From TrEMBL:
SUPFAM superfamilies cross-referenced by the UniProt entry: GntR ligand-binding domain-like, Winged helix' DNA-binding domain
Source organism: Achromobacter arsenitoxydans SY8
Keywords, ordered alphabetically: DNA-binding, Transcription, Transcription regulation
Gene Ontology molecular function, alphabetical: DNA binding; DNA-binding transcription factor activity
HTH gntR-type domain location: 10-78
Keyword Metal-binding in annotation: no
Protein's recorded name: DNA-binding transcriptional regulator GlcC
InterPro entries tied to this protein: GntR_C, TF_FadR/GntR_C, Tscrpt_reg_HTH_GntR, WH-like_DNA-bd_sf, WH_DNA-bd_sf
Length: 254
């Protein structure tokens, strides 16, 4: 009888932990986000405060959540890329930008295809909001960093609509690197009117294909967009190198 009494709360705590883990995996609770209050969680999960606290204790032990004194519990940055030697190598070697854009092309093309197939109306509302935010910023005096974040948020909303948690968290694990590539794109291309118009058209094409549930068109639109950005950045780099060589010849080297 005693064993049964001890076993029951442990199982409930495991269930609470698993349900919260599922919310994190599905992107309902995001990295860095504060957990709802205990009262709200017990209502939503239909469990007692004791079971909830035991479940949260399990999540803290697994480093899925962390608690700040006086501030509450937060979802841990479980998918953050290590900001040590790997980040240094990526940031110090310019060619890795093109390697990263290759990865973006593969991941985002597949996420767009899946979003067009699996996306719900709620997903499409979020994608439309992110798209509208991006369009609204086009005509405003928005700084480069804000443009980059809006661009990234649009692509992430499409990825979340793929309903593939591994794909979503793989992209989220590259957030810092992806924002770097988006920043490079915005910084180098958005002040060039032809390139800016092309990027805007590509975003619109991608948005329309996903919303219209056209998986192959969505896949191609996403891949073409990233591949085009990679090619444009390469062209700019070669142009700058030609300018440097011509300037050195003009000034002489004696």
């Amino acid at each position: 009888m005693y064993a049964e009494t001890e076993e029951k709360p442990r199982q409930v705590a495991d269930e609470v932990a698993e349900r919260i883990e599922r919310l994190i995996l599905d992107g309902v609770l995001k990295a860095g986000q504060a957990l709802p209050s205990e009262r709200r969680l017990t209502e939503k999960l239909g469990v007692s405060r004791t079971a909830l606290r035991e479940g949260l204790k399990l999540l803290r032990a697994r480093e899925i959540i962390h608690t700040a004194q006086g501030k509450g519990s937060f979802v841990a940055q479980i998918s953050k890329v290590d900001a040590g030697p790997l980040m240094h190598l990526f940031n110090s070697q310019p060619r890795t930008l093109y390697d990263l854009l290759e990865v973006r092309s593969l991941l985002e093309a597949e996420s767009a295809r899946l979003a067009a197939i699996r996306g719900t109306e709620a997903d499409f509302i979020m994608i439309r909001r992110r798209y509208d935010d991006m369009v609204a910023a086009q005509g405003a005096a928005t700084d480069t960093a804000t443009h980059a974040h809006l661009d990234h948020a649009f692509h992430l909303a499409i990825c979340e609509a793929s309903h593939n948690p591994v794909l979503v968290h793989t992209l989220q694990s590259l957030t810092d690197l992806l924002l770097g590539s988006v920043f490079a794109c915005v910084n180098n291309l958005y002040h060039r009117e032809p390139e800016k118009r092309q990027i805007d058209r590509q975003h619109t094409r991608l948005f329309n294909a996903v919303i219209a549930r056209q998986p192959e068109q969505a896949r191609k639109a996403a891949a073409d967009h990233v591949d085009s950005v990679r090619q444009s950045l390469s062209d700019i780099e070669q142009e700058e190198q030609r300018l440097v060589r011509a300037t050195l010849r003009l000034e002489g080297w004696t």
